[in-house]
Amino acid sequence: MSVKYTPVQWNANKWFYDAIMLASVAAFLWVFLYLTPQFDPATNPQIHNARAFGACAFVMLSVILCIGPLARLDRRFLPLLYNRRHFGVMTAFVAMTHAGYILNWYFNFSSSDKYVGLLYANSSFGQIAGFPFEIFGIFALICLLVLAATSHDFWLKFLTPPVWKRLHYLIYAAYFAVAAHISLGILQDQQNHIFTVLFMLGAGAVIVLHIAAWLAERRAPAAAKDGAWHEVAHSSDFKEGFAKIATLPNGDRVAVFLMEGKLSAIANACAHQNGPLGEGKIIDCLVTCPWHGFQYDVRSGRSPAPFTEKVPTYRIRLENGMVEVHPDANPPGTYVEPVEIVSQAPLMGEPA
Questions:
Q1: Do residues 137 and 258 share a domain?
Q2: Model pLDDT for residues 40-99, shown as the tens digit of each residue
Q3: Residues 115 and 213 in one domain
Q4: Most buried pick, 58, 123, 180, 285, via CB within 10 A?
Q5: What gap in Å lies between CA 172 and CA 184, rounded to an integer?
Q6: pLDDT single digits (tens) 22-51
Q7: Residue 289's domain spans which residues?
Q8: Is residue 7 part of a domain?
Q9: Cβ(150)–Cβ(89) below 8 Å
Q10: Residue 330 in 3-state DSSP?
């Protein structure tokens, strides 16, 4: 932790995450490169290599876009979010390898520069069959490279979290471009349908999971009885040292912690990188962000001295055993008196 920018250090979880990711990528490429050629023996080895890396990049991109809705539907998938940026960087490298194979096979021996040939070899924009699908692949690759280049914490700090988050919505534009690149390219040319199955499964999973997550959040409880307070969960549902996370009517997410029989509520987003504070565990009144270890007092939202990071707090009360939070956040670092969970009378924690 630091009041200034500090690079995030590696830990056992990061090493394990990346090891599983690299092993999965290697296994996918091995299967595609060495087991699938028998289904399409006429395909040139260079083209087959390009398709292997292209298919791998598409599957990786689909998995990346499935992690978010999966985590919203089931908290057990939340650990997959912690180092998802590593996944994105690896996807960019795999996509670059795919582009390299394409350039070196189709355009390396052309009379013009291979990059110029890539842009001008096909200009049939007025038709669907034979449409220059390469332009979609180029756009998608540029998006992936921008996301990979700005994935480091330095850019999050330099650009500020709101700008950084909006920039990384480019992942959806990249996925749409990849889908168009595939639909107008290989799906109209290939002889076997291995890639067709991968494409349909990947795109279908992304669409279905995003719709399911949207419907689940839409069905979430709305504002509370008196028009202001928002129900989180029954007091009996809380576990000592852990939190319940709720989405407020204004879209913000709040983490309500039970500590020594008392309830406190803080914003779910860590001040460092918007990590899910509600996934952390309380030790000595401090919750540790599971992403990078930043700590906050759940009663005040303040980091322990000498650190100065702060997150908003929320007023909280009990109504007939139901824990309710007021959606209007207190200024970051505002102390709020915890609420006794054993009391059934309406109580309110007001800012000091």
A1: no
A2: 665 678 888 888 899 899 999 999 999 989 888 887 787 787 778 888 999 999 999 999
A3: yes
A4: 58
A5: 18
A6: 999 999 999 988 887 666 665 678 888 888
A7: 230-340
A8: no
A9: no
A10: coil
